Amino acid sequence: MPKTTVIITGASRGIGFEIAKCFARLGHFTLYALSRNKNGLGRLASECAGLNKTSKLFPVLFDFESFLKEPAGFMKSLPGKPRNISVLINNAGCLINKPFDQVKIEEAVQMLRVNFLGPAMLIKEMLPYMGRVGSTHIVNIGSMGGFQGSSKYPGLSYYSASKAALANITECLSMELKDRRVFCNCLALGAVQTEMFMKAFPGYKAPVKPKEIAGFICDFALNGHKFMNGKIIPVALSNP
Ligand SMILES: NC(=O)c1ccc[n+]([C@@H]2O[C@H](COP(=O)([O-])OP(=O)(O)OC[C@H]3O[C@@H](n4cnc5c(N)ncnc54)[C@H](OP(=O)(O)O)[C@@H]3O)[C@@H](O)[C@H]2O)c1
Question: 132 in a domain, yes or no?
Fold first, then answer.
């Protein structure tokens, strides 16, 4: 059976780590796991190795900051030379929890780069490899903070606004790319127990574990685009 290529950003820990494991467990996937953290990716590779021999995982050191300086050529730098991408999960995220008037411009720019501009430029670079064999599903991982009408929390203004931008470009791209068999949806996640959640809501406990939400995201990435395109879907038990 030919392998399906899946790219996951932010795979060194938290939700992305568990998404990668979920695909590895299913089998018959070529997985590209992107992040800046060599140790986290190494741990992921060794945990995935024992799950299903028919999957192959390429850990890729990747920082949005350097990618955005020189996006062209990124695809050619990937090991294994992928020819077709079936799934891209824009999962990496950056949250700096600070009152609005204390956020430095570099911090605001960092959140916008990792949560919005980086994922958008990654899609641009990967487009020539999408929709070539069957369809492609881009899943942007948004947040309830960036979902219109949801409760808002102090300290999360730039983070929430950057996720709202990611949700909006999802709608735009779904129109622009559909004739190329490239479909795009955004999952606006609620609280999941990860390092990021602890930064956003210190002292609180989230009702969902990374492994649980990863199973949902994995299934959605493989099947959701058969039924919807350009949707921003709230995935939350509570808010946050
Ligand atoms: N947890 C929640 O309650 C919650 C709720 C709503 C939405 N989300 C969203 O879900 C996604 C996953 O979040 P999480 O909770 O698993 O967060 P996390 O544990 O903080 O993980 C974030 C991931 O993003 C990567 N990343 C951060 N900056 C990066 C950069 N400059 N370049 C490349 N990769 C970078 C990190 O990898 P390295 O540090 O190794 O590079 C890490 O793997 C995020 O988009 C987040 O906004 C989470």
Answer: yes
Q: Name the residue range of residue 146's domain.
A: 4-235
pLDDT tens digits, 95-141 = 999 999 999 999 999 999 999 999 999 999 999 999 999 999 999 99
The predicted model scores a pTM of 0.97
C-alpha 85/C-alpha 126 separation (Å) is 8
With a 6 Å cutoff on the Cβ, whether 147 touches ligand 1 is no
What CATH number did the domain enclosing 46 receive?
Answer: 3.40.50.720
Residue 237 has a pLDDT of: 85
Structure tokens at 78: 């990937």
The structure tokens 């990716």 sit at: 41
3-state secondary structure string across 21-68: HHHHHHCCEEEEEEECCHHHHHHHHHHHHCCCCCCEEEEEECCHHHHH
How many separate domains does the chain show? 1
Check pocket membership of 113 for ligand 1, CB cut-off 6 A.
no
- Ligand 1 pocket test, pick from 9, 88, 194 with the greatest ligand atom count within 8 Å of Cβ, gives 194
Residue closest via CA to ligand 1's atom 19 equals 14
Structural domain includes residue 165: yes
240 lies in a domain?
no
- Is it true that the peptide bond before 240 is cis, omega within 30 degrees of 0? yes
Residue 40 belongs to some domain of the structure: yes
Ligand 1 atom at minimum distance from 11 CA: 43
